[in-house]
């Protein structure tokens, strides 16, 4: 039971204070004039002012409430390192027993799991969530069981009571980690890119200034080993050999006694891109479709185009002296002998043998294609003539032979069954609405892949691989009709763009490919093939275990499946003769960037609250009660602040000075004062 006096004034307080001032002035005047009853009159006035202030007697029936102590247990991955689970179990048991023996204490146990994605330890977020569910006036303290490596300490909340950190780990712990400080997401193929690496020892490392072995594996190949000094930044120049994703794995062998090897490896994935694609376009003569190729290639800022159109062939005799012509001489020797290997693609657009390119030059083009180059022939009527470039050394690489027949009839180009699976022509929708072409060169004995057909289902677009290179033959010079919108047009630019990029070996247009798209620890495995069926894909995990997954067809020529990787690291995928590697998640998650237990991260949070950092290695500290604002930790002990919170069960009120009693007392003092003054 608690007794309290409250005031419920009958009139506003300013009125009471004004009345009190007038009364005081009157009393002073009476005292000045020597009135003998001034004291009795003062008592009467005081009783009346007290009555106006409305004193109330209040009685409360209260029930004390227990103090709340929040205990946050760090259960993230770094807390499972050597010796820490046992420390946590022992500390949990002893702390529970100590808090149960503390009278008037409720405990809220909070578990801190690994953050979503790679967020690390979100200790302060977990404490903030726990505080949101509790009345802050009852919180007597917060105790964290953790290694102190908290990744949201900068988001500290306003804490109503002391916070303490009971530190896991040992003072003699040490760990070695590999850091990739600088790794670009993109790099130019064939040009050096510099990565900055550092091998660093943390904690009580056994040796200073030592050396460590570093293994480097590119694309899943056998690793190469180098020896680097510990604690020194090392710049590693690398050259990407192919486009698309390049996976590079760095690893340092585990040393005896170090805490973990999870941060001894790092995966770097760099996309290889071409700096500039050099294309040589040779037009045999001006024609309506010549600008189509030029516009397509010039629209790509990454393409350097060298275009020659033969305007004055040797057989043309118009009597104009050569020195008066404003034409550029065709630099045949420079282009086809000296610099042919500088080009990524050579296009012959309606070109025929005219004596401009000797057979030795065309033979050099064939060797260029066999050695890894790309040649595309856009055929016109000249391809079916006696001067066709097929009647040259290029016949060794061209995928089809002309029959000497030119079909001058309207037809609608169509994608073949094989073309629906090939990345160059797959997904080209609306074939039924495409405009017609009006000319086609008849081909026979095609080799390679026929992706499109024309009049009478004859081959229209044929692709083939020769040696290390690629060759394509388009048996019509009327693709330009689509760009003009003839009969509705068609996907001419998209078709020719894909065709050119397939020939330049862009990874996304490979017809036989296995790759994976990653998101966190999940990968979407995709297989593209023209074989008509894809077998199961074998996934080899970072620990060497293998899993076979069946693929399901999602589109013509394309299969896929999904797989959740059990751990971060390098995964190898194999299906038939196709293989690739892919990295899932960071090789060294944020939880393992700093593994040595330390209280320095949380020190800015604990210091204003007078909390402490104590090692569990030294034993469980005792609990003490401390007043707010006093030091809350010391050697071997931590303090909790009693909150003395309570719950009011009932309240009763009554007037402290009844009105009749106030009137009687005031009248008594007034009469007594009057009598005293009258007796005088």
Which structural traits does this protein have?
680 residues, alpha/beta, eight-stranded mixed β-sheet
Poorly predicted spans: none
Q: Quick one: biggest sheet?
A: 8 strands, mixed
Q: Helix- and strand-based class?
A: alpha/beta
How many distinct helices? 11
Roughly how much helix do the residues carry, as a percent range? 10-25%
Identify the strand order in the major beta sheet: 16-15-17-18-24-23-22-20
Proportion of beta-strand residues = 25-35%
General form:
elongated
> What average pLDDT do the residues reach?
84
Number of E-state strands: 37
Q: Determine Rg (CA atoms, Å).
A: 45 Å
Distance between the termini: 51 Å
Keywords: Membrane, Transmembrane, Transmembrane helix
Protein name: Glutamine amidotransferase domain-containing protein
Transmembrane segments: 12-31, 38-56, 657-675
What is shown here, in short?
The chain is α/β, with parallel strands linked by helices and 680 residues long. It has 11 helices and 37 strands.
Characterise this structure.
With 680 residues, the chain is α/β, with parallel strands linked by helices. It has eleven helices and 37 strands. The protein has an eight-stranded mixed beta sheet. Helix 5 links the parallel strand 15 (277-283) and strand 16 (303-309). Helix 1 (13-32) packs antiparallel against helix 2. The radius of gyration is 45 Å and the shape is elongated. The two termini are 51 Å apart.
């Amino acid at each position: 039971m608690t007794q309290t006096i409250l005031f419920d004034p009958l009139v506003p307080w300013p009125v009471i204070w004004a009345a009190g001032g007038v009364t005081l002035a009157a009393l002073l005047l009476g005292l000045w004039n020597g009135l003998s009853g001034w004291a009795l009159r003062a008592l009467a006035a005081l009783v009346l002012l007290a009555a106006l202030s409305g004193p109330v007697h209040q009685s409360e029936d209260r029930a004390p409430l227990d103090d709340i102590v929040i205990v946050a247990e760090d259960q993230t991955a770094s807390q499972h390192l050597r010796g820490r689970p046992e420390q946590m179990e022992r500390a949990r048991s002893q702390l529970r027993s100590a808090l149960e023996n503390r009278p008037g204490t409720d405990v809220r146990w909070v578990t801190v799991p690994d953050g979503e994605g790679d967020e690390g330890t979100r200790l302060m977020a977990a404490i903030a969530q726990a505080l949101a569910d509790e009345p802050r006036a009852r919180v007597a303290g917060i105790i964290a069981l953790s290694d102190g490596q908290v990744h949201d300490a900068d988001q500290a909340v306003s804490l109503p009571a002391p916070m303490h950190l009971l530190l896991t780990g040992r003072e003699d712990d040490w760990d070695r980690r590999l850091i990739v400080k600088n790794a670009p997401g993109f790099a130019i193929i064939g040009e050096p890119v510099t990565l900055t690496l550092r091998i660093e020892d943390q904690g009580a490392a056994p040796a200073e200034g030592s050396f460590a072995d570093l293994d480097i594996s590119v694309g899943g190949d056998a690793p190469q080993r180098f020896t680097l000094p510990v604690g020194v930044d090392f710049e590693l120049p690398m050259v990407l050999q192919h486009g698309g994703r390049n996976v590079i794995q760095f690893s340092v062998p585990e040393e005896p006694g170090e805490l973990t090897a999870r941060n001894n490896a790092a995966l770097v994935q760099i996309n290889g891109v071409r700096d500039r694609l050099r294309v040589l376009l040779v037009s045999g003569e001006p024609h309506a479709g010549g600008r189509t190729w030029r516009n397509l290639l010039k629209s790509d800022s990454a393409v350097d185009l060298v275009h020659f159109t033969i305007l004055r062939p040797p057989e043309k005799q118009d009597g104009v002296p050569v020195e008066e012509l404003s034409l550029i001489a065709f630099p045949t020797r420079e282009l086809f002998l000296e610099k042919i290997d500088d080009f990524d693609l050579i296009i012959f657009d309606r070109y025929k043998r005219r004596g401009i390119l000797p057979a030795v030059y065309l033979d050099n083009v064939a060797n260029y294609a066999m050695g890894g180059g790309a040649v595309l022939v856009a055929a016109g009527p000249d391809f079916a003539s006696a001067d066709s470039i097929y009647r040259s050394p290029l016949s060794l690489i061209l995928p089809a032979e002309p029959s000497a027949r030119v079909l001058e009839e309207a037809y609608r180009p169509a994608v073949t069954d094989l073309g629906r699976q090939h990345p160059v022509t797959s997904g080209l929708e609306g074939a039924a609405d495409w405009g017609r072409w009006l000319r086609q060169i008849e081909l026979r004995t095609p080799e390679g892949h026929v992706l499109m057909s024309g009049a009478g289902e004859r081959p229209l677009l044929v692709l083939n691989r020769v040696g290390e290179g690629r060759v394509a033959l388009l048996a019509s010079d009327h693709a330009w009709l689509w760009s003009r919108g003839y009969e509705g047009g068609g996907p001419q630019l998209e078709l020719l763009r894909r065709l050119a990029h397939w020939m330049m070996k862009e990874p996304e247009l490979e017809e036989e490919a296995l790759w994976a798209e990653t998101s966190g620890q999940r990968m979407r495995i995709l297989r593209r093939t023209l074989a008509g069926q894809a077998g199961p894909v074998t996934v080899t995990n970072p620990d060497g275990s293998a899993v076979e997954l069946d693929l399901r067809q999602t589109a013509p020529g394309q299969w896929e499946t999904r797989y959740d990787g059990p751990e971060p690291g390098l995964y190898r995928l194999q299906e038939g003769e196709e293989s690739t590697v892919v990295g899932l998640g960071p090789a060294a998650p944020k939880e393992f960037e700093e593994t040595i237990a330390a209280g320095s991260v949380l020190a800015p949070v604990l210091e204003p609250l007078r909390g402490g950092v104590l090692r569990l290695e030294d034993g469980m500290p005792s609990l003490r009660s401390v007043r707010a604002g006093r030091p809350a930790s010391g050697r071997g002990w931590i303090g909790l602040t009693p909150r003395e919170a309570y719950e009011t069960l009932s309240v009763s009120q009554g007037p402290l000075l009844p009105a009749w009693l106030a009137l009687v007392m005031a009248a008594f003092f007034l009469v007594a004062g009057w009598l005293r003054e009258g007796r005088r």
